Structure prediction request, 139 residues.
Amino acid sequence: MKKIVIINGPNLNMLGVREPEQYGTLTLENINAMLTARAHALDMQLEFFQSNIEGELVTAIQSAADADGVILNAGAYTHYSIAIRDAISSVKTPVVEVHLSNIHAREDFRHVSVISPVCKGSVAGFGEMSYVLALYSFS
Ligand code: DQA
Prediction:
């Protein structure tokens, strides 16, 4: 059974109430429950982690070294955290970058992802389905 770690960064604990026109109405718990159901069908085991703190995300990525994959929504850190990029580079575990919104269709500062070049792939713009598509990429 494959083990996949789902890591969510800053403000993603606010899903459901935070800018629903941008991020939808599902809570992070709703999304995680949906992923758990999908994972069951794919014979995958999931672990979930969320933090608003950059260093905790770095530690979570390092700790996923034994997993088969990481699905990472780094939130705003996507756009400027070299520490998170270096953490991704430092583990062999493939990391798939996800975003609920299409970051390329939003403000200019969101068009740059400093983590994309060190990720296995990126999925953006499909709401909660971005996570599901990322999960399937490990099947
Ligand atoms: C986000 C996009 C980021 O630009 C933003 O800072 C987020 C959420 C997304 O899932 O669409 O916090 O990662």
Observations:
- The pocket of DQA is lined by residues 11, 73, 75-76, 78, 99-101, 103, 110 (CB under 6 Å).
- The beta strands are 2-8, 44-50, 69-73, 95-99, 121-124.
- Residues 2-136 form a domain with the Rossmann fold fold (CATH 3.40.50.9100).
